[in-house]
């Protein structure tokens, strides 16, 4: 098909796009002030998927690694308490506190997860990660319900942070801070009557939270806890999300990011091959800005780093040439995952 | 969020305020190798320099409370600011009703922000007063009937304080505005599952309601999913309810070929096969035929899926040695 072949990946522009976000952002992005690590993750992991990590100067790679490590919250010097350990998303409250209000300087599960992903993509050996402390920090955030809050400092708890906690535990190869049984119960309770999975029990099924749930079940080896009806129901619910690209919920508009969230969910269930790659692909490309780089959620709208990364990751899942393979559960490149495996071997033998 | 620039007339930087000159601002320390640097406005930096200072000092004062408001206005996603604000509210004994009004005004500006809804929830828990929550969320849903945050807050309030009484009417009105509103269908299920219950009579009533909606718009996944959901509570299962199966065959006879109808009949066939209750309408051959029709004509984008399903029915024949009638 002619028009299909004429679609080109603006590889070079996307690389530049991510480099700009690693550099300086305009004041209009001030609302992302506490989550800068996630922007760095989209950029670094995006460069990784583009096969462009090697085009970053070593100086820049080291700067990023130093910056991430500065955001690590260490155990309390006096008491040894580790409940606030993890990574912060920025240095907005990266200040010294006396013991009374030290809770304000605490790790955040999404920042710990994406921070670790950045370190892995850049080939860091995680030797400066206080693994024990981070796992204690994860442990402190699991609720009675089985889900996780993001931080100890006044935060909602839901499926997103179950996923982040599972990724952290997998990366650090230590599940002692993650009660698999109660997390699995929570996930199964969050399956809806339509077989999609929601942010919490009884809420509406959602493509993003379905991904978080399935990836967690996969990382914890619990996919066999789903019944055949649930697995087949999930496959259908996920495949019905495809219009040309994918939507996140029934009767909602298509959005580039769901080519990853739904695509990766299908991949985890070994059912991605049942979707229509050509339509998926051409939708994602409709949201590509070939001039300045980046992808947006809808055609002809503003690009952002998240949709740019997830657009590329979604394309990678369907085998787009020129892109590195993605590990759907962890949402990092296979290359980064291979690096992680060697670290796990080193830890096991030491 | 609107531009929080330095243009607001009359704004005085904290560093220029005499009543703050006892505080030494604490600038952000991003180290010597910062990346993803946001070029904040001067106002942003000023407010947050003072926020860090009071946080570090752990100052619990009225002026600190006012400062958190400015910090929220510049970034309502900063969960530390909200958390500190809650500490201040407790410590200062501030009137929480006025705080409800305040957070409502922030929700109106940022209705898709996790932190504001969390703040709201904590306040309602403290006050043990959910009396405004249905109106607040109804208002948010008026602007965006599928706002996930608003639905989550609404379900939480309804569940925690047993506010089910008028919820079905609310759902009805949303569904008459937009019968494709999947969030509203989900809420309908929520109400029945927790409140009305699944008595036979209620199940039948819900089935009739749903079939009416499907008659009105046939190609509506949300309604078909809901129908399957209610039938989970019908002892006769998805293939045993005569009203439903007759309705489907009638639609089919009248040339409706909505993929959701065909998929539903396929599911009826599957259950009939599993329960050894196949008949002239619901059997392996019919299921395979419908899978082929979907794959080749009515739902081509999922061609591979429908062929996959067709193969599964092929396997039933092998396993059960069953023939169609
Ligand atoms: Zn999106």
Automatic annotation (TrEMBL), chain A:
One Pfam family in the UniProt entry: Prenyltrans
Keyword Protein biosynthesis belongs to the record: no
A molecular function GO annotation: metal ion binding
InterPro entries per the UniProt record, alphabetical: GGTase_I_beta, PGGT1B-like, Prenyltrans, Terpenoid_cyclase/PrenylTrfase
Keyword set, alphabetical order: Magnesium, Metal-binding, Prenyltransferase, Repeat, Transferase, Zinc
EC number: 2.5.1.59
Entry's Gene Ontology cellular component terms: CAAX-protein geranylgeranyltransferase complex
Names of the cofactor(s): Mg(2+); Zn(2+)
UniProt KW DNA-binding keyword: no
CDD domains for this protein: GGTase-I
Record domain Prenyltransferase alpha-alpha toroid: where: 9-332
Reactions it catalyzes: geranylgeranyl diphosphate + L-cysteinyl-[protein] = S-geranylgeranyl-L-cysteinyl-[protein] + diphosphate
Superkingdom of this protein's organism: Eukaryota
Subunit text: Heterodimer of FNTA and PGGT1B. PGGT1B mediates interaction with substrate peptides.
Family: Belongs to the protein prenyltransferase subunit beta family.
The protein's name: Geranylgeranyl transferase type-1 subunit beta
Species of provenance: Pieris brassicae
From TrEMBL, chain B:
Class of this enzyme: transferase
Keyword Repeat: yes
Domain of life assignment: Eukaryota
GO cellular component, one term: protein farnesyltransferase complex
SUPFAM superfamilies given in the database record: Protein prenylyltransferase (SSF48439)
InterPro entries registered for this protein in UniProt: Prenyl_trans_a
Pfam families (UniProt xref): PPTA
Enzyme Commission number(s) from the entry: 2.5.1.58, 2.5.1.59
Protein family (similarity comment): Belongs to the protein prenyltransferase subunit alpha family.
UniProt keyword terms in alphabetical order: Magnesium, Prenyltransferase, Repeat, Transferase
Cofactor(s), by name: Mg(2+)
Keyword Transferase among record annotations: yes
GO molecular function: CAAX-protein geranylgeranyltransferase activity; protein farnesyltransferase activity
Official protein name in the record: Protein farnesyltransferase/geranylgeranyltransferase type-1 subunit alpha
């Amino acid at each position: 098909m002619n028009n299909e072949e004429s679609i080109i990946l603006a590889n070079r522009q996307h690389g530049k796009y991510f480099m700009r976000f690693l550099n300086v952002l305009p004041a209009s992005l001030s609302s992302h002030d506490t989550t800068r690590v996630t922007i760095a993750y989209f950029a670094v992991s995006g460069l990784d998927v583009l096969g462009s990590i090697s085009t970053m100067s070593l100086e820049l790679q080291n700067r990023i690694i130093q910056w991430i490590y500065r955001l690590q919250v260490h155990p309390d010097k006096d008491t040894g308490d580790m409940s606030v350990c993890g990574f912060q998303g920025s240095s907005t409250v990266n200040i010294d506190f006396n013991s009374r209000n030290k809770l304000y300087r605490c790790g955040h599960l999404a920042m710990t997860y994406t921070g670790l992903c950045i370190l892995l993509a850049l080939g860091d050996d995680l030797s400066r990660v206080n693994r024990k402390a981070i796992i204690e920090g994860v442990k402190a955030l699991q609720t009675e319900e089985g889900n996780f809050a993001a931080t100890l400092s006044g935060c909602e708890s839901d499926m997103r942070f179950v996923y982040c906690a599972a990724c952290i535990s997998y990366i650090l190869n230590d599940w002692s801070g993650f009660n698999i049984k109660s997390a699995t119960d929570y996930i199964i309770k969050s399956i809806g009557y339509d077989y999609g999975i929601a942010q919490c029990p009884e809420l509406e099924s959602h493509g993003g939270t379905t991904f978080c749930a399935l990836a967690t079940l996969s990382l914890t080896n619990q996919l066999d806890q789903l019944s055949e009806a649930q697995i087949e129901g999930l496959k259908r619910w996920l495949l019905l999300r495809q219009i040309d690209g994918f939507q996140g919920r029934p009767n909602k508009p298509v959005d580039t990011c769901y080519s990853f969230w739904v695509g990766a969910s299908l991949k985890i269930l070994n059912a991605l091959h049942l979707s229509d790659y050509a339509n998926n692909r051409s939708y994602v490309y409709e949201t590509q800005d070939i001039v300045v780089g980046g992808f947006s959620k809808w055609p002809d709208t503003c690009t952002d780093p998240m949709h740019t990364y997830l657009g590329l990751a979604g394309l990678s899942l369907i085998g787009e040439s020129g892109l590195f393979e993605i590990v759907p559960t962890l949402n990092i490149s296979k290359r980064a995952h291979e690096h992680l495996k060697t670290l796990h071997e080193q830890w096991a033998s030491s | 969020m609107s531009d929080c620039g330095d243009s607001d007339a009359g704004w005085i930087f904290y560093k220029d305020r005499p009543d703050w000159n006892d505080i030494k601002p604490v600038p952000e320390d991003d180290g010597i190798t910062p990346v993803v640097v946001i070029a904040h406005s001067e106002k942003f930096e000023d407010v947050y320099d003072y926020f860090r200072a009071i946080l570090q000092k752990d100052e619990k004062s009225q002026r600190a409370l006012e400062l958190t408001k400015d910090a929220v206005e510049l970034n309502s996603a900063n969960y530390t600011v909200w958390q500190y604000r809650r500490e201040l509210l407790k410590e200062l004994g501030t009137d929480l009703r006025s705080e409800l009004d305040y957070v409502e005004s922030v929700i109106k500006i940022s209705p898709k922000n996790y932190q504001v809804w969390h703040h709201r929830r904590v306040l309602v828990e403290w006050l043990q007063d959910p009396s405004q929550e249905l109106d607040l969320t109804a208002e948010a849903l008026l602007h965006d009937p599928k706002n996930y945050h608003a639905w989550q807050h609404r379900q939480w309030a309804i569940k925690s304080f047993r506010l089910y009484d008028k919820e079905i009417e609310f759902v009805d009105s949303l569904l008459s505005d937009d019968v494709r509103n999947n969030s509203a269908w989900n809420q309908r299920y929520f109400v029945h599952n927790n409140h009305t219950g699944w008595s036979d009579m209620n199940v039948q009533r819900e089935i009739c309601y749903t079939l009416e909606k499907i008659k009105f718009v046939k190609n509506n996944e949300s309604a078909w999913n809901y129908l399957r959901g209610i039938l989970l509570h019908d002892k006769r299962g998805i293939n045993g309810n005569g009203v439903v199966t007759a309705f489907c065959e009638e639609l089919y006879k009248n040339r409706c070929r909505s993929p959701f109808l065909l998929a539903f009949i396929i599911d009826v066939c599957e259950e009939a096969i599993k329960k050894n209750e196949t008949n002239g309408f619901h059997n392996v051959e019919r299921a395979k035929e419908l899978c082929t029709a979907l794959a080749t004509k009515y739902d081509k984008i999922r061609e591979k899926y429908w062929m996959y399903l067709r193969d599964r029915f092929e396997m039933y024949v092998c396993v059960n040695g069953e023939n169609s009638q």
